Amino acid sequence: MSTPTVKLLINGEFVESRTTHWKEVINPATQEVLARVPFATPDEIQAAVAAAKAAFQSWRKTPIGARARVFLKLQQLIRDNMADLAATLTAEQGKTLADAEGDVFRGLEVVEHAANIGSLQMGEFVENVGSGIDTYTVLQPLGVCAGITPFNFPAMIPLWMFPMAIVTGNTFILKPSEQDPLVTMKLVKLALDAGIPPGVLNVIHGGEEAVNALCDHPDIKAISFVGSTRVGTHVYQRASLNGKRAQCMMGAKNHAIVLPDANKEQTLNALVGASFGAAGQRCMAISVAVLVGEANDWIPELVAKAKTLKVGAGRDNPDLGPLISCAAKDRVTTLIEKGMEQGARLELDGRQVSVAGYEQGNFVGPTIFSSVKPGMDIYDQEIFGPVLCIVSVNTLDEAIEFINANLNGNGTAIFTQSGAAARRFQQDIEVGQVGVNVPIPVPVPLFSFTGSRASKLGDLGPYGKQVVLFYTQTKTITERWFDDAVTVGKVNTTISLH
């Protein structure tokens, strides 16, 4: 039986690539080859962009209500197919079935928000800004836009991108992660079933060459990216130099402050869940716990809770599944070894975990270090695995200063029962997304994802109100109409509108 091939989507048709460069999609729990994904040729990328450019001319003038109804239908199709989407996501990415459904659901929320575009894409109007002169603004689509998505959320992040871009009147080129594109392609098929016309949504696959082609193509007006800091910085610089808008959500090192007055049971549960869920492969994972004062006495109980987590294949719905690849596992285990070498205290070692029946899986169990300091690789680097670093400080002020000294600014949290401490924290912390007794403060789509500092390049975030501005150009019209019965006076050479 031959291995299935992942198709390209060009001008409404799923087509077989003519490339000679392919990559295998691997089940990270079993090493089973699920499919082969093509690295699209330059001609195929050009054809996708050309289809999007041609489709833009009619799609941009499609009534806003008609665009909204496409996404009303898509959200229902996603709900109807939730179990199948989650199973596919789990097979190729590794996360548990429950977490896979959460991945799809958080994207579904953005689809629902897109269906409300009629109230989101409104301009402004003021009558009589001058004598008989009115001024108004409209938010018009840019043209062809592109999105580059990562392996860790192959449903949610594509759904962050193409629905909002398309519903605002743009056409779109999506480049999913080549490591797990299968669930993304199922979502794309559902989008076509919901009524997205040919050419409005196109999909290419590939690696660095495909990314560069999207950054360089003169007909692409904007690029959205989620992924590593290294690639995101490259995308932002290259796209910007080519005159494009770019928004890049990148790496993180998210800290949670724990004050001694926090509810111990709730806090420990939150830390363990946010650190080790999805095997730590979240850009919003809590990877550093900053324990203040007597909260340092909680380390043994934190370790005990982590030991209770079950590691296994995602389809068996354990607490955490495997890492995405053998290379990812090797990188995480190497960083654990470096942490020990550089003086951190290994409180819990997850390197030797074994899962019966899945001996080839990329498993690393919950791992906890204490006595962690800046300068250690486990602190300075985003591990992107189930590793929690513990830092000990004496006061809240020390904790805030410590977090602000880190370059990244994706998310942070504080656990406390003191309103005064929480208020000081949220005012003084220099991080874009803040949780108060909430470990992963990713906002719902009524608001915008607001990562900051080295975790983000570009002014406007994905989804929410900000992304409507990202995918549109504000055009301001000042107009005056004369009554034929009114005689116009003399020539006026001043700047006044009166």
UniProtKB/TrEMBL annotation:
User: What protein does this entry describe?
Assistant: methylmalonate-semialdehyde dehydrogenase (CoA acylating)
Q: Which organism is it from?
A: Chitinivorax tropicus
A Gene Ontology biological process noted in the UniProt record is: L-valine catabolic process
- Say which family it is in: Belongs to the aldehyde dehydrogenase family.
Q: Which Gene3D superfamilies match?
A: Aldehyde Dehydrogenase, Chain A, domain 1, Aldehyde Dehydrogenase, Chain A, domain 2
Q: Which PANTHER family match?
A: MALONATE-SEMIALDEHYDE DEHYDROGENASE (PTHR43866), METHYLMALONATE-SEMIALDEHYDE DEHYDROGENASE [ACYLATING], MITOCHONDRIAL (PTHR43866:SF3)
Q: Which domain of life is it from?
A: Bacteria
Q: Which GO terms describe its molecular function?
A: methylmalonate-semialdehyde dehydrogenase (acylating, NAD) activity
Q: Which UniProt keywords apply?
A: NAD, Oxidoreductase
Do you know which Pfam families this protein is assigned to?
Aldedh (PF00171)
